[in-house]
Amino acid sequence: MGLDETGALAAAPTAAFAPPPEAPPIEMAEAAPAPSPDAAAPRPSPSPAPSATPCLRYSGSDWRVLSTGMGLNACVQALYAGTCVRPGEAQYGRWGDTTLRLVPRRVEQSADNTRFRTLAEQDRNCQFPGLN
């Protein structure tokens, strides 16, 4: 046990990852506007266009918007290209409603913030050659 760069308790490198941060309510609300309360009949809200999907970085205590005009692969590259983490560490980001997690040698994704699956493998140069 020890302290990390934010002053929070941190476990040894072999420990499990910390739970992912909560989804950002403000940025996500901006991506899909709420319907007008005076609407006569409820209509399904249109899905945001891929160009409007926000790419967010979690920076220790808050979410920062990187862009709202990139696809998933470009978001992963913007968040993590050139960045490697050590065993036991993780960095988080979001693309729309998808949580992204950089762990050693790969980026994982989750739609429910609990079950993660591999999205892309990372090479020794901390790059993602499989993402174009």
Structure in a nutshell:
It is built from 2 helices and 8 strands; from the N terminus they run E-E-H-E-E-H-E-E-E-E.
Helix segment count?
2
Question: What can be said about the biggest beta sheet?
Answer: 6 strands, antiparallel
Q: Gyration radius, to the nearest Å?
A: 17 Å
For the secondary structure, the number of strands is 8
Could you explain the architecture of this structure?
It is a single chain. The protein is α+β, with helices and mostly antiparallel strands and about 130 residues long. The chain has a domain at about 25-30 and about 50-95. Helices cover about 10% and strands about 25% of the residues. It contains 2 helices and 8 strands; from the N terminus they run ββαββαββββ. The protein has helices at about 25-30, 70-80, and strands at about 1-5, 10, 55-60, 65, 90-95, 100-105, 105-110, 115-120. The strands form 2 sheets. It has a 6-stranded antiparallel beta sheet, with helices on one face. Strands 1-2 form a two-stranded antiparallel ribbon. It is globular and about 35 Å long. It starts with a strand and ends in an 11-residue tail after the last strand. Mean pLDDT is about 75; it is low at about 10-15 and about 25-50.
